[in-house]
Sequence to fold (305 residues):
Amino acid sequence: MVELKDIQRVLQKNKEGANDEFKRLFHGRGGLYEGYRHLTVDHINQNILAAALYFEEENEDAIITMLMEFVLQHNYDTLVLQRRYLKGAPSEILCGEVPEDLTILENGMKLKLNLLSNKNNYYFPDMKNGRAFVREHAKDKHVLNLFSYTCAFSVAAKFGGAKSVVNIDMSKGALKIGMANHSLNRLDPKGVSFLPYNILKSFSNIKRKGPYDLIIIDPPSFQKGSFEATKDYEKIIKKLPQIAAEDATLLACLNSPELESQFLIDMIQEWAPSFTFQERLQNVPEFASKDEQKSLKNLIFTRSF
Fold:
């Protein structure tokens, strides 16, 4: 059984080298620390530490005391705790304050962050390597970003020199944040679209703007009334040949612990056989998991005939 002092040592080790960029200091959800699967701790920047508890635990007070000591020791100004196990997942500022227009840095990109949201906070840090891949392969490409949320992939693509990016998401609010993310980075808005479509019902409109050289599919594993990976991913894969350029690259993402990489590989082989599986991107080291097949899966496919 892992003890609290062991968690302190992990935090100390991972804090080394942390700078103004976001960094996960403790990832209990990976299952590597028995008894602490419910805890995550993030270095937002040099001033702000944020933690989340996913289950109610008897030693919650001890965890908070440990985090407060860590904040003082490393000269953070602010500690925010989100209790994900409570209805509404409320966040509490335990010390300091949170700037109204908070942003994080990732590989030099600025992205908006809402630490006090009772939903997702605009930013998924475990997707860092996926965004790096897009940035490295976007030069002069026409990019399609499905389930774009706050459009961090789009920002990465524009940093990488993309010719155009089409962002598709049902949430107008998320797309509005996406527009702000582009403005934050002073990116030329020319060629960037933000379309509030239901992806599964809008393929004629999506096809009209194609074909696309680089396609990103990053859906929720399950979102009631919107998307369920086990039944809806297939619908998108079947449409790929109609919207992809002849030499297109596909980044297909899957963040469901119950589904392994082979779920997507087999589906694409059946319904979009012109795409060939190339590799699974390595995950960010700070998000290591006891069972990597249960962690985030970023799969790269290329199209050829």
